[in-house]
Amino acid sequence: MFIDKEAFKNDFKKKIINMYAEDIEECSPSHKYFALASLIRDYTSENWLNTNKKYTNNKEKQIYYFSMEFLIGRLLHSNLLNLGIRDACKEALSDLKIDLDELEEIENDAGLGNGGLGRLAACFLDSMASLGIAGHGNGIRYTYGLFEQQIENGYQVEVPDNWLKEGNMWEVRKENKAVKVNFGGKVMPTMENGKLKFLQQDCETILAVPYDTPIIGYDNSTVNTLRLWSAEPLNKDFDFESFSRGEYSKATEYKTLIESISQVLYPDDSRQEGKILRLKQQYFFVSAGLQSILRRYKKLGEPINNFHKYIAIHINDTHPSLAVAELMRLLIDEENLAWDEAWYITTNTIAYTNHTILSEALEKWPIDIFKTLLPRIYMIVEEINRRFTDEVRERYKDENKVNNMAIIGNGQIRMAHLAIVGSHSVNGVAKLHTELLKYQELKDFNEFYPNKFNNKTNGITHRRWLLQANPKLSNLINETIGDSWIKEPNNLILLKPFAEDYYFRKKFEKIKLENKIAFSNYAKSTYGMDIDPNSIFDVQVKRLHAYKRQILNLFNIMDLYRRLKENPNLDIVPRTFFFGAKAAPSYYLAKKTIKLINTVAYKINNDTEIHGKIKVFFLPNYSVSLAEKIIPCAQVSEQISTATKEASGTGNMKFMMNGALTLATLDGANIEIKDAVGDENIVIFGIRKEEVLDYIKNKNYNSYEFYNNDFRLKYILDSLINGSLGVPSNEFIDIHNSLLKNNDEFFVLRDFSSYVEAQNKVDYLYRNRDNWNRMCINNVAHSGIFSSDNTIKRYYEDIWK
Ligand code: 26W
After folding, report:
1. Are 38 and 285 in contact (CB under 8 A)?
2. Atom 5, ligand 1: residue with shortest CA distance
3. 757 C-alpha vs ligand 1 centroid, how far in Å?
4. Mean of pLDDT values over 331-348
């Protein structure tokens, strides 16, 4: 898109007057941000309309990505970049004495996700639009996103994330596109024109109102749509009669109850409790999404039997698996299709991605809850299950197998099984993960459906994670190899020869330092942290979870600290360790881990004896926009999960793309990163999948052995409970227990020694700074294959097309 500077300035001034009746001189920075965002949305409206028209006129196949989470972060910067007008805007605003970077900082993050799964959905939206693929998001417009994390006295405190408080300029409320969603009631079989029909009676009907956000492609005039649904009462804001009687809280009770459906994102990935509201959320957005897709489809004038030829629905983990049953319901009850026809369409429309093998994250719903809330859907799931188990029984004559594979079993509905049976493709998110699904976790299903399973290694949008987050490095790349990599990320490989160029290495090093200085200044002014920009920046930012092993990182730090105390002249390269992580509010051990990190950080950072050689910082409220700040200045990327536990990881890709060295176990996509960059450009440690699986199978791991035989571990674990950390001695007893009495589920003690060695190797490698830079440049050069553009092309070719 082209903008004329003077015209833009006029538009902007007018916008401010129109929105706020203010002159630009008296207008607050926040109003300036909103006016700018609103103006940019105006600029995209025509392309948005045209994209939709084009899709309809060409009857292009539409892809709908169903996800409970879209962790998109901020949009102003990326929208300006994708429109190709950021430089022009920046100049024009600077004429008006406005700093664009400052305005961009005002935007609230759309934090509608927990972690990798939600961020992946956001990267996919960017890639689909940028590749000109007709792909759209379908999800929930949570009034509150993932909680805001504050740290008080070292503990995580959760504060509601009221991200919409000041408004959201990107979204458009489409009341005319609202649909109804039914809960509860009972199902009445009746005969209608000689056909059996299932009427839903006495149900509670609520209104789903869509809010659409434009998803702007990079330099291609494509504008796709992220449609997020909000729950509202059908026909009354509040009960006027109750209000007149003076029963004020009763008058609004109903409204509040309905609205609670889209009130808040469940920040809970640690355990599966009785979360009826979460089931409601799932049905709510799945049903609303499918109804609106069906309505649009019918306008094409194609027969319903061709639905799957024009529509692909992708379900992001099991959370939207109700789509299988809801699409069946719509096709049978509303479109009058027979079961077999409806089943053919449904299974050819839906595809499913699995994101975890951790059993506690595989959703299961108690039958009674499910049946009460969704009686008609339950009938359909029962029928799907009956037909499916008949087939399994027929094939294997083995009741054990039937029970293991059934969709309904042990009083529960297994959402993963529903998703597998109801879709034509099931994919894992990295090679190892897919192997584990095919040959371990979902082995029976892979045997039953030999062609359904496939791998699609995750990716990240290089436009946000390099072009936007690291402008200095992007400029250097542009100067060196041109800017073709922005559309063809694989072209980053053209940088490889420059790893051998001394002057290039120096320039690269300088940019890393500048990024580190910029972050240090930011951290000083925002958190009061004193950071030495010349130390190595060693970063672990991700959800807090035992399998991700923040504890292992911390144990090395505690060991290093012990060594420094014994010998203050110990020769190490100064290092700053950064942590950033939110813990699910109900995940007790994760929260204790945050307290432990902060406790150790306090002790180390205030000990003058070690001359500031190491420092530890916990960055509060890790989010997309914080990731954009810390990743470009990171030098060591901590990817240290227990082998087999991290499905893929995507932070690992973001770090390599910004020239950090990966310190990793052979888990998830780390393996593919290692294969891409070569053994000489990565530091690998820890036990491999075989050993992990052996331990689990033979139940012969004993963490006490490591505790008893390694004085370092003994020292560290004892210090957790002997008061030497300066907190009451029972503060960390449960972490201690998890590692010893409960036998260390994630093999932290087993991998400790290997990890310390790997960390020493990092220190050693860094001393040859020139060669270190060479390794880092190689990482950037090989990162293009991890662009989500590549991932999306594979989804498109193998699954959606
Ligand atoms: C119980 C509901 C539930 C379960 C798990 C909600 C949310 C989750 C997670 C937060 C899911 C998640 O983010 N998984 C991550 O997905 C990424 C994208 O595929 C992978 O890279 C990560 O390895 C995986 O942990």
Report:
1. no
2. 269
3. 30
4. 97
